[in-house]
């Protein structure tokens, strides 16, 4: 075998240039270049609760109802709706001009199929479907929801702002098994998903849906006119925060969706760049107990730890910058309609002495607490260290077990004893939009091992209160029930609220039209 | 030679099978479950079990392995659990940036390091030699991400000559490609320049002691010809070995550089897949890396015959 050395060297040098793959042509028109908060790994917002997929959903899909900035559900795809006097029959009529991205008009049958699929995955959707007698299309634009009992949160459920959002899909896609991903992305929203340009881990591209007919009302959170003011939106995922910051400063991107608190001052001092919090509710940190295992099988011991939680300490460790956190003890987001202070007297003052007293009352016997620490999520990782120190200062024995979030999510589902892979406590967080009512806030459930969220609190009274809330549509009665639910949550110690934090966005001066909301939207934004 | 290549190709099969088995078992025995990640916060245990069944994760591990191997021999690396895209598509999307970064780094490193190392050996013990060695120690010592951030600060943020991040294919324009690859390749090259320069210096130094070099000089050959034709060529086998292994290491190990410069390459793909427990991607990529290592080793062996005619297989 013989090689010409010249040919060999020439071939080697030329290889990089001939090996390149074909690329799409660069886009024309206005482009909003965004660094999203995460990589879009999957495209079905019913299949997953990931917030990035929810945001993708808002780009391409539309909703029947949508929350405005006061968290009131407003008609979106729906033009008119009627409810019978007995509140059992709801009739919805779609507005004119709705069409799927591939051309056909949106029909009532599409919406019925979409709601049914969502109702099999989402917590509030499951609750709604539990009391649904029938859901059927009457004609091309009208469908009727018949309830067995007067569920009070019909509009709150189908206008839900955060995961899983009941996005409307064509019937042929909505009939996909809800535990399988839809095979293609066809919505009726203000942007179209360009699948050919999607590079998972790097880039997602959306093009303006020229056929979209926005509502006439001004945009308000998820509701109102969704006017696409740019031709393309490019999500350029940059996992390294310093690189993301540099890209914003150098003008390679226009908008950085979630600026880390430690970089916010640097970015904020850069001329031509603004750092701003757009989410009025923020996110709430949660310390979740496993109610099935010692020592947190006793409410006094759970309440002892809640008493010891000094939010300021958690927030300083997890967030650091006081501009981006707030001490807020209400279990419902501060600034939301259901914010209240019921039951807080049970856990005040937040002192170690008071906590120790409760711990003694609970008969803590020195059982070791296994705390799962997700080291790849900086904020909850820091919360975990403070929680361990807090419990140790109360006299509890604590073992921190470090792991990545994926391991934690599989382990938190285990109900086994600690020695067989179980757990006692872990941290997570929820955006305020997930906590605006006690049905959406799954952490408040007392449904036990079958129905409650991980940690499995079992409390018949709590479930009775939540059920009452679900059948109440009167705002005053809802507020009163929310107080009772919060009081009960603290009494039984469902979880500890470790404080509220806000994640600012950063944007260049050419970017206009941001919408204040717990969820990031890209309509109404221009460059 | 063809017999040698044939034998090596056949020997690849058991190696790949062992790699496949080990990777598969490690993943199945490690904690974490993609079904719980997919199921999300509102899923019941029954929902999680249903997802596990759909992914085939409820089957006995042996059956899962046989099923995977069966698809593998047909060239099917599987479908990503999360993106629902074929693993081959995902590797295809990420291969070019990683290959381009690796090759640019290696070409640049070789162009700089081999002359540096050869000159250092030629001028052994002088200030030139010591300067080259100091540069080499610095190249070894400075972490790539530190150098990367310095380069970004200087060339992108201050001078505004080059972009901060991203990748452009040569198909988008050679100029654009070089503008985007210059900083990551520069940052990554520091280590490889140091490595190749030191190996070159040591090899050339050894060769310069040989009798035939003295003979060449005695015959009146000019010093540059002695160095380039006689010394460097005969010292090239260990240098080529290091360069070849460097390419292999770069392809599988540039995750930090890919992160700092936001290059959508294979390194980031594998890290993301591990964090999500996307088994088909992890398995497919590790097999791919193994295949690449074997292929590069074979190529290095072939290059030996080009550089040293005494080597025959």
TrEMBL record, chain A:
GO terms for biological process: peptide transport. It is found in: Periplasm. InterPro entries: Peptide/Ni-bd, SBP_5, SBP_5_dom, TAT_signal. One of its GO terms (cellular component) is ATP-binding cassette (ABC) transporter complex. GO terms for molecular function: peptide transmembrane transporter activity. Its main location: periplasm. Residues 73-434 form the Solute-binding protein family domain. The keyword Signal applies. Residues 1-27 form the signal peptide. Belongs to the bacterial solute-binding protein 5 family. This is ABC transporter substrate-binding protein. It comes from Thalassobaculum fulvum. The lineage of its organism: Bacteria, Pseudomonadati, Pseudomonadota, Alphaproteobacteria, Rhodospirillales.
From TrEMBL, chain B:
Pfam families: BPD_transp_1, BPD_transp_1_N. GO terms for molecular function: dipeptide transmembrane transporter activity. The keyword Cell membrane applies. GO terms for cellular component: plasma membrane. Keywords: Cell membrane, Membrane, Transmembrane, Transmembrane helix, Transport. The chain crosses the membrane at residues 9-27, 99-122, 134-156, 176-195, 237-261, 281-307. The keyword Membrane applies. It is a multi-pass membrane protein. It is found in: Cell membrane. InterPro entries: BPD_transp_1_N, MetI-like, MetI-like_sf. Residues 95-304 form the ABC transmembrane type-1 domain. Belongs to the binding-protein-dependent transport system permease family. PANTHER family: DIPEPTIDE TRANSPORT SYSTEM PERMEASE PROTEIN DPPB-RELATED. This is ABC transporter permease. It comes from Thalassobaculum fulvum.
């Amino acid at each position: 075998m013989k090689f010409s050395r010249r040919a060999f060297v020439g071939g080697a040098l030329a290889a990089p240039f001939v090996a390149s793959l074909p690329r799409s042509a660069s886009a024309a028109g206005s482009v909003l270049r965004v660094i999203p908060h995460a990589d879009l790994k999957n495209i079905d917002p019913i299949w997953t609760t990931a917030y990035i997929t929810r945001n993708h959903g808002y780009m391409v899909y539309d909703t029947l109802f949508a929350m405005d900035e006061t968290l009131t559900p407003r008609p979106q795809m729906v033009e008119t709706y009627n409810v019978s006097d007995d509140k059992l029959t709801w009739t919805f009529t779609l507005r004119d001009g709705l069409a799927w991205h591939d051309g056909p008009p949106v029909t009532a049958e599409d919406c019925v199929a979409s709601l049914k699929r969502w109702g099999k995955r989402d917590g509030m959707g499951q609750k709604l479907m539990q009391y649904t007698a029938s859901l059927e299309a009457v004609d091309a634009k009208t469908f009727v929801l018949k309830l067995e009992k007067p569920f009070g949160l019909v509009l709150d459920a189908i206008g839900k702002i955060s995961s899983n959002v009941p996005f409307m899909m064509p019937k042929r896609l909505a009939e996909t098994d809800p535990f399988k991903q839809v095979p293609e992305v066809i919505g009726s929203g203000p942007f179209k998903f360009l699948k050919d340009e999607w590079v998972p881990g790097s880039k997602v591209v959306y093009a303006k849906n020229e056929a979209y007919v926005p509502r006439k009302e001004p945009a308000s959170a998820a509701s109102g006119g969704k006017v696409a003011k740019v031709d393309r939106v490019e999500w350029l995922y940059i996992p390294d925060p310093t690189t993301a910051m540099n890209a914003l400063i150098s003008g390679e991107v226009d908008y950085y969706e979630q600026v880390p608190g430690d970089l916010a001052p640097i970015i904020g001092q850069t001329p031509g760049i603004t750092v701003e919090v757009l989410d009025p509710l923020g996110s709430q940190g949660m310390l979740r107990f496993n109610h099935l295992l010692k020592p947190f099988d006793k409410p006094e011991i759970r309440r002892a730890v809640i008493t010891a939680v000094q939010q300021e300490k958690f927030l300083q460790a997890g967030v650091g910058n006081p501009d981006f956190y707030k001490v807020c003890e209400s279990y419902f987001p501060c600034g939301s309609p259901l914010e209240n202070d019921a039951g807080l007297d049970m856990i005040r003052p937040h002192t170690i002495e008071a906590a120790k007293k409760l711990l003694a009352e609970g008969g803590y016997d020195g059982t070791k607490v296994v705390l799962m620490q997700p080291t790849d999520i900086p904020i909850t990782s820091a919360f975990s260290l403070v929680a361990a120190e807090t419990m140790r200062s109360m006299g509890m024995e604590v073992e921190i077990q470090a792991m990545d979030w994926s391991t934690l999510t599989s382990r938190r589902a285990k109900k086994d004893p600690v020695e067989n892979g179980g757990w006692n406590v872990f941290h997570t967080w929820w955006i305020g939009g997930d906590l605006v009512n006690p049905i959406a806030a799954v952490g408040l459930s007392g449904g036990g091992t079958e129905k409650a969220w991980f940690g499995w609190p079992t409390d018949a009274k709590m479930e009775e209160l939540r059920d009452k809330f679900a059948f109440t549509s009167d705002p005053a009665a809802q507020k009163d029930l929310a107080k009772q639910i919060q009081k009960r949550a603290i009494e039984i110690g469902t979880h500890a609220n470790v404080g509220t934090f806000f994640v600012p966005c950063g944007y260049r001066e050419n970017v206009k039209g941001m919408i204040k909301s717990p969820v990031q939207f890209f309509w109404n934004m221009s460059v | 030679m063809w017999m040698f290549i044939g034998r090596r190709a056949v020997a690849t099969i058991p190696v790949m099978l062992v790699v496949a088995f080990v990777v598969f078992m490690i993943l199945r025995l490690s904690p974490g479950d993609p079904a719980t990640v997919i199921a999300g916060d509102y899923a019941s245990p029954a929902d999680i079990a249903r997802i596990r069944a759909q992914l085939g994760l409820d089957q006995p591990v042996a059956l899962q392995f046989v099923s995977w191997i069966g698809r593998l021999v047909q060239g099917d690396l599987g479908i990503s659990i999360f993106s629902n895209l074929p693993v081959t598509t995902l590797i295809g999307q990420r291969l070019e940036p990683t290959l381009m970064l690796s090759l640019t780094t290696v070409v640049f490193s070789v162009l700089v390091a081999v002359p540096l190392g050869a000159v250092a050996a030629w001028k052994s013990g002088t200030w030139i030699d010591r300067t080259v060695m100091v540069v080499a120690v610095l190249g070894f010592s400075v972490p790539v991400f530190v150098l990367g951030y310095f380069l970004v600060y200087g060339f992108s943020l201050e001078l505004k000559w080059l972009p901060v991040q991203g990748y452009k294919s040569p198909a988008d324009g050679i100029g654009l490609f070089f503008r985007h690859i210059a900083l990551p390749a520069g940052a990554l090259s520091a280590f490889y320049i140091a490595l190749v320069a030191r190996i070159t210096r040591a090899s050339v130094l050894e060769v310069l002691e040989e009798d035939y070099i003295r003979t060449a000089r005695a015959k009146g050959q000019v010093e540059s010809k002695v160095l380039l034709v006689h010394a460097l060529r005969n010292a090239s086998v260990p240098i080529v070995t290091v360069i070849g292994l460097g390419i292999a290491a770069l392809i599988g190990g540039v995750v930090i550089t890919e992160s700092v410069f936001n290059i959508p390459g294979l390194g980031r793909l594998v890290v993301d897949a591990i964090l999500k427990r996307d088994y088909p991607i992890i398995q497919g990529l590790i097999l791919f890396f193994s295949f690449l290592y074997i292929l590069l080793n074979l190529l290095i062996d072939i290059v030996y015959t080009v550089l040293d005619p005494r080597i025959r297989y």
